[in-house]
Recover the amino acids of this structure.
């Protein structure tokens, strides 16, 4: 490390100790609330654990800029304010096993990332080893909004990101270059990522935040997502189902601000805390799944500044969690994100969701992100849903309880002729289950459902602590702790 990097690391270390009271490294991840410990069947390639994490976390290297200089001078802490190690310590505090450092850019930000943020990440990894910390960025996406770009944990991770950010992040050039803000530039970037030996993973962030109405999209569009996936099928993995900034309706003392927006969605609101592209039954997500696309959803904090310090954010893991079915190492967590072994929850409504499907006449079960092949077998499929509510109160001190679980199905009919399509008319709620319908077995909520399969399809589940049959648009002043949902990713079924 250069001398200035050493000094920066020491400053970050002192700030971390001040925030955490000197407890860095003192807590093992297995002892934290919200991390599943129960013994479960070995699904998903023999894995046992659902590991909670957050792929959208900002640090002080999401900078502001002094525009009076040429080029503009970056201002550390000018947008987000916390050192990476502070983010990691709070992620550990709220039970996360992994996070991704995703600072967004600006003029010459790629150089700042390589020279300053990366050494700070290395220090944070040493300071908080219990939390696996990926290197990445919130890409200033050409011709679109933002995307989480997650770099594999390899020796060349710093060089991989520098190459991608400097060549493709639309705000990196100075003077500004309009050619960086075109869809052609994004497709070029995705082709480059797809060619890499160590391929990153990309999720579109807050995809409908700029939408002006239901199905009236802004910077991110259905056609773009289809083009992205076609260009880099092993890189483009999905979008945020539940965006961050969910504390936007809370005052610093925790009371509700009647004018506050949940998620920062100031045009068309979130729906039960989820983006309309996910929450609308038979909407864009179901349209993509109906083409057979492996398109996954996540839930993140988008943490910049905590709401108690005047921001609109929760700490990583305090409210949103993305659970990945994986062994506890960087490679398998990234593989789980890429392949959709994911469920998401807000407000710690649940901390375990084991969704499996198996042929009714026996066979090996599959789980989320996987495909069940029924060729030559009976047309019935047995769906089992096993859910666990957390044993401890959530960060608000509440013990929310599940009121309903929905089994949702849709047909897989192949590519659409109109790439702007954002609906799947075959999607339906196959069954709704409430407390009178499910069983409780050793503290687990258990639902069993039989599907008759007459063609290619998918199945996914969601649940809520509310009595809403469908998630409704969130009005201003919505208390985020009162309206909670979870979603699984799908299982595909071929026949």
């Amino acid at each position: 490390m250069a001398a200035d990097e050493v000094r920066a690391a020491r400053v970050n270390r002192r700030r971390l100790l001040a925030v955490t009271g000197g407890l860095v490294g003192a807590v093992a991840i297995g002892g934290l609330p919200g991390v599943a410990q129960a013994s479960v069947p070995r699904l998903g390639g023999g894995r046992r654990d659902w590991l909670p994490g957050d792929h959208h976390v900002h640090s002080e290297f999401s900078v502001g800029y002094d525009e009076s200089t040429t080029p503009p001078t970056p201002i550390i802490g000018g947008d987000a304010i916390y050192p990476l190690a502070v983010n990691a310590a709070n992620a550990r505090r709220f039970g996360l096993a992994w996070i991704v450092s995703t600072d967004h850019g600006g003029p010459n930000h790629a150089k700042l990332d390589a020279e300053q943020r990366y050494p700070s990440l290395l220090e944070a990894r040493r300071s908080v080893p219990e939390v696996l910390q990926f290197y990445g960025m919130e890409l200033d996406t050409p011709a679109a909004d933002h995307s989480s770009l997650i770099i594999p944990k390899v020796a060349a991770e710093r060089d991989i990101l520098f190459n991608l950010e400097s060549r493709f992040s639309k705000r990196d050039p100075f003077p500004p270059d309009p050619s960086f803000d075109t869809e052609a530039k994004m497709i070029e970037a995705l082709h480059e990522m797809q060619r890499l030996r160590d391929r990153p993973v990309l999720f579109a962030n807050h995809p409908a935040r700029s939408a002006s109405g239901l199905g009236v999209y802004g910077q991110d569009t259905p056609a773009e997502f289809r083009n992205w996936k076609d260009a880099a099928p092993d890189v483009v993995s999905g979008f945020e189902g539940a965006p961050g900034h969910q504390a936007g309706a809370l005052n610093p003392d925790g009371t509700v601000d009647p004018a506050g927006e949940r998620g920062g969605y100031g045009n068309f609101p979130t729906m039960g805390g989820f983006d309309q592209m996910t929450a609308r039954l038979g909407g864009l997500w179901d349209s993509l799944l109906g083409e057979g696309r492996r398109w996954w959803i996540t839930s993140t904090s988008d943490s910049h500044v905590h709401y108690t310090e005047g921001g609109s954010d929760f700490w990583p893991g305090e409210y949103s969690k993305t659970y990945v079915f994986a062994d506890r190492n960087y490679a398998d967590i990234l593989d789980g994100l890429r392949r959709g072994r994911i469920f998401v929850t807000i407000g710690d409504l649940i901390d375990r969701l084991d969704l499996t499907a198996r042929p009714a006449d026996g066979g090996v079960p599959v789980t989320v992100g996987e495909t069940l092949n029924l060729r030559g077998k009976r047309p019935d499929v047995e769906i089992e849903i096993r859910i666990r509510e957390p044993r401890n109160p959530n960060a608000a001190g509440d013990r929310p309880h599940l009121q309903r679980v929905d089994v949702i199905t849709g047909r897989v009919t192949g590519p659409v002729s109109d790439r702007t399509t954002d609906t799947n008319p075959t999607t339906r709620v196959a069954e709704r289950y409430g407390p009178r319908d499910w069983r409780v077995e050793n503290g687990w909520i258990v639902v069993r459902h039989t599907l008759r399969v007459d063609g290619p399809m998918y199945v996914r589940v969601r649940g809520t602590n509310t009595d809403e049959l469908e998630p409704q648009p969130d009005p201003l002043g919505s208390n985020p702790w009162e309206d909670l949902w979870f979603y699984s990713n799908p299982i595909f079924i071929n026949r």
